[in-house]
Amino acid sequence: MPTLMQAFQMSSSSFSTIISNLQPDLLIYDGFQPWAAKLDSSQAVLFATSGATTLLFFHHIHTHGSATHFSYSAKYFRDYEQKDLQAEGRSIKLKDSDEGFAFGIFKQSHDIVLIKTCKGIEEKCIDYLSILCQRKMVPVGPLVTDSKYEEENSEIKKWLSTKDQFSTVYI
Predict the structure, then answer these.
(1) Is position 165 within any domain?
(2) How far is Cα 78 from Cα 12, in angstroms, rounded to an integer?
(3) Total domains present in the chain
């Protein structure tokens, strides 16, 4: 993880040049490129690639310092798992500590957060995470869908189809 984060950080200046040249209307980024939201050439929206329950659990630990009193008792880590996660988190070094990793990324997202989940599975967690992050969570479902589920994502597809080619960049 530390090497991956370092590689992403090293790419920020090159990526900034690419974005300046493309000038997209919308920049969709994930948590591994928190610096992407700072590029002033576009509006940036976070795409959370984890489910709402996991993000909510980690947000709770980040906010409260432990998993004690987590609202959803079915989701938990054993003590040794929490220690491993905390050690991994400390091993990640950022160039700029206000880049937002891991929960500031929500604050950098413009009004909404796209999240890889669906309300049918995680509605309570989506709603609570939305309150904690002060952003509307927009579940986009799984990235690969069966044709019978295409209607579920039709609003996003209709919106994207109204945009010019190359006006949206997915990182």
Answers:
(1) yes
(2) 36
(3) 1
- Please tell me which residue, 103 or 140, carries the higher pLDDT value: 140
In a domain, 139, yes or no: yes
- Confidence (pLDDT) at 35: 76
Domain assignment present for residue 127? The answer is yes
Of the pLDDT bands very low, low, confident and very high (cuts 50, 70, 90), residue 114 is very high
pLDDT, tens digit (0-9, with 9 covering 90-100), for 48-103: 988 888 888 777 777 766 666 666 666 666 778 777 766 766 665 555 545 455 66
pTM of the model: 0.69
- The residue segments making up the domain with residue 64 are 2-10+25-170
Chain centroid to Cα 21, Å, comes to: 25
Q: How far is CA 112 from the centre of its chain?
A: 10
